[in-house]
Amino acid sequence: MRRDPLGYLSTDLQALRDQGLYRRLRVLDDEQKPRTSIDHRVVVNLSSNNYLGLTTHPKLRERALDAIRRLGVGSGSVRTIAGTMAIHVELERRLAAFKRTEAAVVFQSGFTANAGTVASILGRDDVIVSDELNHASIIDGARLSRAAIKVFPHRDVAAARRIVEGLPPGQRTLLITDGVFSMDGDLGALPALSDLAEEFGCIMMVDDAHASGVFGEHGRGTVDHFGLHGRVDVQVGTLSKAVGVLGGYVAGSRGLIEFLCHRARPFLFSTSHPPAVAAACLAALDVLESEPELIARLWENTRFFKAGLVRLGFDTGASESPITPVIVGDAALAMRLSDRLFDKGVFAQGIGFPTVPRGTARVRTIVTATHTREELEFALDAFTAVGTELGILG
User: Fold this and answer.
1) What's the pLDDT at 129?
2) 19-48+292-389 belongs to which CATH class?
3) Are 116 and 142 in contact (CB under 8 A)?
4) CA-CA distance, 223 to 190, in Å (whole number)?
5) CB of 183 within 8 A of CB of 165?
6) Are 244 and 55 in contact (CB under 8 A)?
7) What is the pLDDT of residue 3?
8) pTM of the model
9) To which H or E segment does residue 329 belong?
10) CB 52 within 8 A of CB 212
11) Cis peptide before 5, with omega less than 30 degrees from 0?
12) What is the rounded distance in angstroms from the CA atom of residue 218 to the CA atom of residue 98?
């Protein structure tokens, strides 16, 4: 009998089960809605990145269906051969105008936008100065670039300055931060980091995945929120969270975008988006610019739910966004909290190491513009009951 060369993976999986950290995939049975069916159970969904409810917005549905009828279901090629359609060009033009940059390019995901950009614009003779809590896609892109990687403590601009000051004069340096940190919900130190980048001639890059559609005028992101237009060289965003569809993009100078089209490996070697995806993204930009009440409602719900969790006595960390962690520390406890909430009709996913540092496990909650006050009150009641049951609340 042949020996299983992957048998060690079963051992590792069993270790996760023994630690209470094994998680099976929950299955969504319905639309991505605030109250939906997951694993055949109706729950209030507090784990979706669908900040504005655009995944089911009628304007996005209509534009996607129209594109399928006119242009088919796929593009049939990578962008650099026969896969650049007029609708892709229009989407990139609209994204550049929306972000107030010279140009933009669309990638298959936010992950590939980050990783592909960092890996292509830097090399082994360069340096990356990165916040310790930056997204995994930034970390992977930094490793692929083969540049030297210098990590500064979270939001510690003084530490970042010490790193930059210690580099040789003229050293090509990328200074990079998330705009909104996905596990803690706090904002990157963009104004101070932009000052530092300008002082030392660094390339300034921001991953605005969780800020797109949430912060700034009409959801333009943290660069707009902080008034930093023209001071951030590389802006990465996503089309799969508040925009409600799929993909990522990079916005910046025309030279940057043209270079990425020639050197970014995910762009070069991945089939372009189906026409329906591009059409729905275009419709989402229309909604962002014409329905500001959605963002206003998102923030109203955010303030209500965040205040409720704090009032109950939960540790919500330093959140400044619709992402509000409920930090319990122990990973097994976080998973029990998540499971018991699900039993009571609330889906809030437990998160532990390696997604977050050891000892900081949490249940991450995200409210949306389309949650009702009744649904949020129901969720707070469930947190009260389960938090008391598990001894998290006194």
Assistant:
1) 98
2) alpha beta
3) no
4) 8
5) no
6) yes
7) 87
8) 0.94
9) strand 323-329
10) no
11) no
12) 9
Report the C-alpha gap between 323 and 327 in whole angstroms. Answer: 12
Catalytic residue among 241, 273, 306, 371: 241
Tell me the per-residue pLDDT of 222-252, one tens digit each, with 9 for 90 and over: 999 999 999 999 999 999 999 999 999 999 9
Q: Which of 48, 75, 109, 182 is catalytic?
A: 182
- Cis preceding-peptide flag for 354 (omega within 30 of 0): yes
In the chain, where the domains are located: 19-48+292-389, 56-290
Each residue of 302-314: b (16+ CB within 10 Å) or e?
beebbebbeebeb
Mean pLDDT of the 161-166 span: 98
Residue 241 designated active-site = yes
Straight-line distance from the first to the last Cα atom of the chain, in angstroms, rounded to the nearest whole number:
56
pLDDT of residue 354: 84
Quote the CA–CA distance of 221 and 212 in Å, as a whole number: 5
> Of the residues 210, 273, 306, 371, which is catalytic?
210
CATH number, domain 56-290: 3.40.640.10
Pairing of strands 127-131, 173-178: parallel
How far apart CA 386 and CA 392 sit, in angstroms, is 8
Q: Is the pLDDT of residue 394 over 90?
A: no
* pLDDT classification of 353: cutoffs 50, 70, 90: confident
Asked about 182 being catalytic, the answer comes back as yes
For 211, how many CA atoms within 13 A lie in the half-sphere containing its CB?
27
Q: Look at residue 346 in the predicted model and tell me its pLDDT.
A: 98
* Residue 208: C-alpha distances to residues 47, 135, 230, 232, 293 (Å): 19, 11, 15, 11, 21
CB distance 210 to 248 below 8 Å: no
Q: Are 267 and 130 in contact (CB under 8 A)?
A: no
3 state DSSP class of 350: strand
Length of the chain: 394
Is-contact 29 347, C-beta < 8 A?
no
What would the DSSP string read from start to end of 161-185? HHHHHTSPTT--EEEEEESB-TTT-
For 374, other C-beta atoms within 10 Å of its C-beta total 10
Between CA 261 and CA 269 the distance in angstroms is: 11
How do residues 19-56 score in pLDDT, each as one tens digit? 878 888 999 999 999 999 999 999 999 999 999 999 99
The proportion of the chain whose per-residue pLDDT surpasses 90, expressed as a percent, equals 94
* Range scoring the smallest mean pLDDT among 12-21, 192-201, 300-309: 12-21
